[in-house]
Amino acid sequence: MTLFYKSTRDSENIVSASQAILQGLAVDGGLYVPTEIPETDLDFKHLANQSYQEIAALIMQLFLPDFTQEELHECIDKAYDQKFDDQEITPLVKVGDQYYLELFHGPTLAFKDIALSILPHLMKKAAQKNNMDKEIVILTATSGDTGKSAMEGFADVKNTRIIVFYPENGVSPIQKKQMITQKGENTFVAAIEGNFDDAQRKVKELFNDENLRSKMAENNKVFSSANSINIGRLVPQIVYYVYAYTRLVKSGKIESGEEVNFSVPTGNFGDILAGFYAKKIGLPIRRLICASNQNNVLTDFFQTGNYDRNRPFYVTSSPSMDILVSSNLERLLFYLTKEDTVQTKQLMDDLNKKGNYKITAGMKSGLSDFFADFASEKETAQTIHEVYEKGNYVIDPHTAVATCVANKYEEKMLPTVILSTASPYKFPQAVLQAISKEGEKAAINKLETFAEVSVPAAIKELENAETKHNDKITAEEMMHYVEKELNLK
Ligand SMILES: *Cc1c(COP(=O)(O)O)cnc(C)c1O
Q1: What pTM was computed for the model?
Q2: Distance from the CA of 179 to the center of ligand 1, in angstroms?
């Protein structure tokens, strides 16, 4: 085993894959990245005949070398089973001349399920491997989808607890309902006055608070993360890029080795970063299309080299992308600086103190793997409408952002795979409004007729579900909330 993980802010901080999963965030505030890019020779013709689970085992083994094949297979089999309502796990659907990779067939109807249905199993194995007997407390900020998806994965998992903070006015009504009705003795949820960035910043502060950390240790507890800062989230996401490509080969749409583009609706930069790693291990990707909504801080960054979070925050119809501080960009910066931890730390310090930073011309030239643009609210709605009219296919607002930006990309010669990150049923009002004009209940019923796909069970259950979480606090009260719910003395 030669692949380890090191912090983006301290090259001396090196841990094994399983330790990186247990810790989530490095103690120096940095994010763990692999010490090397695994060498592999992907045989796409061969992979075209393999299942999602088989491809997952191959890809995850490359990045998690201290897990055995047996352990990975066990985790994969537990994660990717009947919880997904499609045997393919992430089916690839052709609509017009574009391809949609449907990542929303899991229990909470968003792409976060792909990684979060396996993360608890990986964490359990990682704890055994490291003889860790402490209770693992998952601390998570959510822009809407991570919270529910993570709770679904960790609910009633022995020796774990999960605390979720969500922006009170920043999630869709269905997302909120999914969270406040969450079952499981070990789940805790609080609404935060403020937006996702406030919640995420505070969670990182709590992780790095030495006093809190030692109190946790005294109580035989330790924090970890279910956000995409955890490499245990990123690695399972690399799999579906490879899977999508092999299905294109299988159906004869491309020859093995031909390049394709992927368009990714982006918020915290986790999903698209997994695509970046897929490219690094040899997947023939020409461009990763970084699609933002009105909160277009990433578009500006890719176009100018300036990252500036000092700007208005918009609540949009794609709330899971309403983010101004994209955590995983730190990992990309690390590569742009040629793995310079001092420079990466400096840029992150600038972001913390001033709210902005500027990369050098040399670093900017490393951005050619990406194309970035954004979709306004109007364009997003128009795109939902168009795709329905032309392709008879219903997409959610996040997926619409990725479609709109893919259409803005001028080099359209190559096949483009659009990552479809949420079921339209999670945002029925926005979707139906884009097609016609209706209220929420009527929207769900109407949507069923339009989509010709029946209402998912996960949505039906919500109708009569009991509210279990009513806590509402400010970001400043988050520390106290954690101490109180965990009974820290
Ligand atoms: C989280 C989320 C995104 C953004 O993914 P990132 O990894 O944060 O960039 C896009 N769409 C949906 C539906 C999501 O839940």
Answers
A1: 0.91
A2: 17
Q: Is 302 part of any domain? A: yes
DSSP-derived secondary structure letter, 172? -
Residue 448 maps to which CATH number?
A: 3.40.50.1100
Q: Which residues pair with 5 in a beta bridge?
A: 15, 34
Is residue 237 lining ligand 1, measured as CB closer than 6 Å? no
Q: Which two tokens stand for residue 133?
A: 């007997």
- pLDDT, tens digit, for every residue of 159-197? 999 999 999 988 988 999 999 999 999 999 999 999 999
Distance CA 103, CA 89 (A): 8
Q: How many domains does the chain have?
A: 1
CA torsion, ordered 135, 214, 229, 471, to nearest 10 deg: 70
In a domain, 282, yes or no: yes
Within a domain: 150: no
Q: What is the DSSP string of 37-100?
A: PPP----HHHHTTS-HHHHHHHHHHHH-TTS-HHHHHHHHHHHSSTTSSSTTSS-EEEETTEEE
User: Does the beta carbon of 102 sit less than 6 angstroms from any atom of ligand 1?
Assistant: no
Farthest-apart Cα atoms in the chain, separation: 62
Give yes or no for a contact between 104 and 423, defined as CB atoms under 8 angstroms apart: yes
Q: Which of 112, 176, 202, 426 is catalytic?
A: 112
112 counts as catalytic = yes
Look at residue 241 and give its three-state secondary structure: helix
- Strands of 365-424 (E only): list them: 370-374, 416-420
The finding on whether 398 has its CB within 6 A of some atom of ligand 1 is yes
145 Cα to the center of ligand 1, angstroms: 8
pLDDT digits (tens, 9 = 90+) for 73-84: 999 999 999 999
Among residues 311, 330, 331, which one has the least CA distance to residue 374?
A: 311
Residues 401, 293: Cα–Cα separation, whole Å: 6
Exposure of 367 by Cβ count < 10 A (0-12 exposed, 13-18 middle, 19+ buried)? Answer: middle
Whether 406 is in a domain gets the answer yes
How many angstroms separate the alpha carbon of residue 317 from the centre of ligand 1? 13
Residue 453 binned pLDDT confidence (cut-offs 50, 70, 90): confident
Q: Which domain holds residue 268?
A: 92-110+232-462
Exposed/middle/buried for 228, CB within 10 Å: 0-12, 13-18, 19+? Answer: buried
Tokens representing 363 are: 């670093």
- What is the per-residue pLDDT for 383? 96
Residue that has been written with the tokens 């159906």 in this structure:
251
Residue 263's nearest CA partner among 412, 118, 483 is: 412
Q: Are 154 and 451 in contact (CB under 8 A)?
A: no
- The answer to whether 299 touches 372, Cβ cutoff 8 Å, is yes
